[in-house]
Design brief:
The protein is an all-alpha fold and 66 residues long. Helices cover 70% and strands 0% of the residues. It has a single domain, classed as Helix Hairpins (Orthogonal Bundle). It is globular.
Length: 66
């Protein structure tokens, strides 16, 4: 998966469940996205592959932001 599509990929998953995450600060936005994705996975709404892809994308992006 290309990194240019990463946040779009996560937003598409979140929007599928009626969730939209926005914060002016990118680190905060990524943290909120991570919490939402973890909650979706815990509740069995997304599969393991989607969950792991999202977490990988978020962690990489957080490293880039720091």
């Amino acid at each position: 998966m290309k990194l240019s599509k990463n946040l779009t990929y996560i937003n598409d998953i979140l929007l599928r469940f009626g969730s939209y995450v926005y914060d002016k600060d990118m680190i905060n936005r990524l943290e909120l996205m991570k919490m939402e994705i973890q909650e979706l996975y815990r509740n069995g709404l997304i599969n393991k592959e989607e969950y792991l892809n999202c977490i990988l994308i978020i962690n990489k992006r957080m490293d880039e932001e720091k």
